[in-house]
Fold this protein.
Amino acid sequence: MDREQALAIVHEYVQNLNLRRHMLAVEAVMRNYAQFYKENPDEWGLAGLLHDFDWEVHPSLEQHPQDGAPILRSRGVPEPIIRCILSHADHTGIPRRTLMERALFACDEVTGLITAVALVRPSRSLQDLEVRSVRKKWKNPRFAANVDRDEIVRGAHELGVELWDHIERIIYAMRGVASELGLDGES
Ligand SMILES: [Fe+2]
Ligand SMILES: [Fe+2]
């Protein structure tokens, strides 16, 4: 399984642009963390890129992500990546054991918060977005109210990183794909 094949799966199952962008964001952050931990960025990237591929066809926790797993298996996605994807959702009961699994959980919800903060800025860009802007919005529970702050805190804790260092790294990693995310101030 290479990135092109994984992207083809995403394009086949996901038509919603924001959902595609969410997975591209998580992919970029996973690649960054893999490099940081001297792990395999291609493998970690695939887990990020595919983790919500079935959300459009399985838009509830009754089905997502567990019913997506057999589809990924039939497409030849390696088992550690499938297990990682299953473990990003607490309700599957699959415990997060590996660093890759902890990283995926830690990167999922927080990319949504950072995207929301970037979108309300006049520049609509990640390039000039700083941690303190995120900090400010973090404290306002009405801002991006659907973003679960507790889950973000738990994710960073499980991964063993300090929350605001984590957020800084995620902003940096997302900047690298800002144009694909529509967050380069041009789109
Ligand atoms: Fe998910
Ligand atoms: Fe997600």
User: Anything to note?
Assistant: The domain at 3-180 is CATH 1.10.3210 (Hypothetical protein af1432).
